[in-house]
């Protein structure tokens, strides 16, 4: 009996120990895709020739140009040689089709668990059908991470992914470091796939970071405005900053203000935003932004006689700054409201949460009512510091 | 291998109850709540938990009233003999079906998130074999296992929940109490469904040594379970909002996926959390499987339950593979929860308690008259 037991154990142990090696995939055989880009496929002749490879009788349903990039893992580890990253592009019908096609062309095993960024060309993002198809794929997939960054770009996504960052890393890792660095730039939209999905469901509008290519550089700046499951417009860098001040997501911003013919720079710190919505007597919906900030004069004029140290002067600057920034922020709100009709400030959501009675009355016509919403921005900044000189 | 040790302490009963009740239900509970009552989810959850606490106290009353009796003898005693067997068999079927459903849901989740290339049949059969092994070891081993597994399975998940706190938006729970009342009332029984598994106290009370502490264990376990549910639901909805929670099959699992633990080597922590969470699902299955076999052995008047565990195994395995897809599993689970479980957890114990009170009263009355 005991002998049988021992034999059994000797038989079982190798199964436990060695079966793991059976299906092993070494790390250098893996390709961790870090970024995927989508462009619209217009169907040029060149590309048609490529499609001969498919050898299908049916007309292939090609709508996307899908570009992937993955880093050379062994180079990052300091062992291997060669290019720091690899880029592949393919014409395809869907996410899955693109994956199958690229698998034919590379000797590595592909993994998307570590995908950091998805980049949509503007044309794809403006096409509701394609946008919804892709977004559903992202949300449904078990492999994809909800923390990945979703970008829109006016350039070709393919070009962006082919950029050599010069830092021995591929674009995906580069973007990830850029987006998650500690000193966050304030002029970009920092929202991931999960946030965009939630915002689109709750308010039917969201902001996606924009990525642009200029010469050999890539730059994350500004934002794309998403509404009704598609891209409706783009915001510039400064507009994006203003939007995020209104949303209360920015803690720090610099403004150049002209006071008495001098351009001075006032750094706004400790920004706090409070948004209120209410219905006035005439039945109009009002939004009121109450923003508090502290100021810090970081640039004045060389050899001016103690001007920044004068209380009256400071008061004047305060007034000017508040007036100008209030107007600028209000204009941005109106621009988004009128041009795009996108409720990215979640006014509707705010009404639903805090004034349910009003919301129930207007929720069916919200798309018509939102452009008529009245806005008032009250920016209250006080200069606290003027630097270490008088 | 004689493991004649059918005695547990009330503190072990507490661990068994908690690990049995917490399992598959919570993973999808925020969805059901968001779908039905929206922003009032937490209020309804608290309401349901309080109501269930009252039911739990009634069930516990029944258990303490009949020492050293299982549900079969209880109902035989209160009603009449064949009724004991019928009700016992009812409980057996109920536990069997809930085991089957949990096993299938377990298989789907494991296949979806952890073992992508393993056939679901292999996942289920290896899981069931492990369950049968622990069931054959008897209640005392299961109790010890529960004590070990309880912190191991719940605390990593709670830790990940804590990490999610900075990104939460609790205004999703506004406006308060704007849901129509009938909807709220309709949803409360769904909360009871999340407490399925508590009815095993009817059978496990039989094994408890310090019987006077059963009440304490019951209250403590309900409080712990409902606070875990509360934290999970609050954080999930505050993270995803109502509209998003509604469409996620397992919102809690997606929450695990979307959490970024700072400074970790592991980028995707959800695999670790899911693995520990599976322990608690394992306990749910092991305990209901044990109780099912135990009831069957009582109905068949056999002394041992060990061999019966093996007989049920193929039955559970085949039944768990019947639903065609995950949609069917959840549809059946909902129906099952609404009808059968409410009867088993709620109506039968309270009916028995009521009758036993009446009987005692009439006995007293007879004595006085006589």
TrEMBL record, chain A:
- Cellular compartments annotated: Membrane
Q: How does it sit in the membrane?
A: Lipid-anchor
Question: From which domain of life does this come?
Answer: Bacteria
Q: Where does the Spore germination protein N-terminal domain lie?
A: 23-211
User: GO annotations under biological process?
Assistant: spore germination
Read off the InterPro entries from this record: GerAC_N (IPR057336), Spore_GerAC-like (IPR008844), Spore_GerAC-like_C (IPR046953), Spore_GerAC_C_sf (IPR038501)
Gene Ontology cellular component list: membrane
UniProt keyword list:
Germination, Lipoprotein, Membrane, Palmitate, Signal
**Which family, according to the similarity comment?**
Belongs to the GerABKC lipoprotein family.
Name it: Germination protein, Ger(X)C family
Automatic annotation (TrEMBL), chain B:
Family annotation (Pfam families): Spore_permease
Example GO biological process: spore germination
Query: Where in or outside the cell?
Result: Membrane
State the annotated membrane topology for this chain: Multi-pass membrane protein
* Gene Ontology CC entries for this record: membrane
Alphabetically ordered keywords of this record: Germination, Membrane, Transmembrane, Transmembrane helix, Transport
Predominant localisation class:
membrane
Where does the sequence pass through the membrane?
A: 12-30, 42-63, 84-107, 113-133, 145-165, 191-209, 221-242, 271-295, 307-327, 339-358
Keyword Membrane in annotation: yes
Q: InterPro entries of this UniProt entry?
A: Spore_GerAB
Top-rank taxon of the source lineage equals: Bacteria
- Tell me which NCBIfam families the record gives: 2A0309
Q: Which family does it belong to?
A: Belongs to the amino acid-polyamine-organocation (APC) superfamily. Spore germination protein (SGP) (TC 2.A.3.9) family.
Recorded hits in PANTHER family, A to Z, give: SPORE GERMINATION PROTEIN A2
State what protein this is by name: Spore germination protein
Please name the source species: Paramaledivibacter caminithermalis (strain DSM 15212 / CIP 107654 / DViRD3)
